[in-house]
Write a structure and sequence with these properties.
Length: 511
């Protein structure tokens, strides 16, 4: 449970702080039936198990229910409703009712979350073994059905239909948002998809390649090839080479694509004896594996990681290298190891004895295509979403070491190749120096919900998005980001901690 809490904490680190602006709306609605009477609402295949009138943090009615066999959901209905519905995503394999934006109740949103149809720790997937109903619920159906049923309960509670619907999530939650836009484009008018785990099977392959490089012997999961001293050395050398390219030495690499660090330039340990300020040949090979993509007979399955964030807290150590004490409690040295191996055992191959260490990727595409067909949110045709006038903001931290920003960029560029009008309905923001869903040296706080709402409801598309970084409630830094492929460029003279010192790049190759 602690792992789940850590993941949720990371996600809320960003999400909880991004929306201090009150959404003002003059068309607030008050409920027209008492909270407890929601139990009398008859919905096919839905059991409303509990209703509860709660006063804190704002007066609301909490509805708990079960859809179908075992999709648990919770819906919060504020006394003063702003006529909107917002659904929040979950993290990892979910496994408990999660709503990453439940705090939006304070702004008058009716808000819901689901456990995606199974219960258990967020890093394990034994629940999925030979259970197609659970797999499909997790993949996409639970979010869709929760959205549909929530809207109907809202309609009957307030005697008024939802005016606008939103989905907001990060990590698995980001993937849930993309999946909705692709599969159920009528569900949400606006989606905010943060650091999305949208290409699950390929991401699992990338996790497994890293596990093979760093834990080649499955009986020695307490002996990572890469050491924490390696990470310190690696980050130091990368920053020496690339930090100042953007004009500011601030531990933030504005454009990792412009960083041509050569991993082979790391100092080699004499006679391959492990030491702090050098790498052995095995360590070098493992480090290279993390930056390299995964390939099936020359075809890229998944890209590697950009440079950045290697030695940050919740950088490589916790996600990729280990030992991560939180993950160890579930029997895994790292978060990636847990997510990747559990996914392949239980969701892809239905084989609890499947061994990551002997797997090779030469038949990956043939053997994983079926699981990918329902698990992955990799469809590139957003035609119905676009036609409905819906909008999606995707954001991804450049220093995210859980999920590579390169994968998200690839998806965006693939969609753009099919539809050059992509920016009319999907905008991608890359956040320099930002880890998975938030944190890191770069600023990551902004009000994504207000941005998507303004785009959907007022037709004002986000362009210059101001990110901030705070400590002890003091704003330390603000910087802008622009829709990909535009970048934010330092003017060379202003205060680097003020967003006004940055301009939008006029070409896509600016450093
Ligand atoms: Ca810099």
């Amino acid at each position: 449970m602690k792992i789940i809490k850590v993941v949720i904490a990371l996600v809320t680190l960003l999400l909880c702080n991004i929306s201090l602006t009150q959404t003002t709306d003059q068309s607030e609605k008050i409920s027209c039936i008492p909270c407890e009477e929601i139990k009398n609402i008859r919905l096919p295949d839905v059991i409303i198990s509990q209703t509860e009138q709660i006063q804190e943090p704002t007066p609301h009615c909490k509805v708990s229910g079960i859809i179908g066999t075992e999709i648990n959901f919770e819906l919060l209905l504020p006394k003063n409703w702003n006529t909107r519905f917002i659904m929040g995503g979950g993290g990892g394999f979910v496994g408990a009712v999660q709503n990453q934006v439940s705090w939006t109740i304070n702004q008058g949103y009716a808000t819901a979350g689901t456990d995606t149809g199974h219960t258990g720790p967020g890093l394990t997937a034994a629940w999925a073994l030979n259970n197609m109903e659970r797999q499909v619920n997790f993949a996409h159906l639970a979010v869709h059905r929760t959205a549909v049923e929530s809207k109907e309960i809202i309609r009957q509670f307030y005697c008024s239909a939802v005016k606008y619907s939103y989905f907001v999530g990060c990590s698995q939650g980001g993937s849930q948002g993309m999946m909705e836009a692709q599969r159920y484009p009528e569900d949400f008018d606006g989606v905010v998809a943060g650091a999305p785990a949208f290409n699950k099977v390929a991401t699992g392959a990338e996790n497994i390649q890293n596990a093979q490089a760093i834990y080649p012997d499955p009986t020695k999961l307490d002996e990572p090839v890469i050491s924490s001293a390696n990470l310190e050395l690696l980050q130091t050398k990368i920053l020496e080479k690339c930090d100042a390219i953007d004009g500011i030495t601030d531990q933030i690499i504005n454009n990792p694509k412009a960083c041509n660090f050569n991993v082979d330039s790391l100092p080699l340990c004499p006679e391959n004896v492990v030491s702090d300020n050098c790498v052995t040949s095995n360590q070098l090979a493992a480090i290279k594996a993390v930056y390299a993509g995964v390939y099936d007979q020359g075809l890229e399955i998944h890209p590697g990681f950009p440079f950045g964030g290697e030695n940050e807290h919740w950088g490589w150590l916790e996600w990729i290298v280990g030992p991560n004490q939180e993950a160890m409690r579930s029997g895994f040295p790292t978060m990636q190891f847990g997510i990747g191996t559990e996914m392949f055992k239980y969701l892809v191959f239905q084989d609890p004895d499947w061994d990551y260490s002997s797997y090779d990727f030469s038949d990956f595409t043939n053997t994983t295509g079926y699981a990918s067909s329902y698990l992955d949110a990799t469809a590139t045709n957003y035609g119905a979403f676009k036609k409905s006038g819906n909008k999606m903001i995707i954001y991804h931290g450049w220093s995210d070491n859980a999920l590579s920003a390169f994968a998200t960029i690839n998806h965006y560029e693939t969609v753009e190749k099919e539809d050059e009008e992509i920016r009319d309905y999907i905008r991608l923001y890359l956040l320099p120096g930002v880890l998975h869903c938030g944190g890191g040296p770069g600023p990551s706080r902004t009000d994504w919900i207000e941005l998507i709402r303004n785009w959907v409801e007022n037709g004002i598309a986000p362009d210059r998005v101001i990110l901030s970084k705070s400590a002890d409630e003091q704003i330390l830094m603000t910087r802008p980001v622009f829709p990909y492929p535009n970048k934010s460029v330092y003017d060379g003279k202003g205060d680097p901690d003020k967003e006004s010192s940055f301009n939008k790049s006029t070409t896509t190759n600016n450093k």
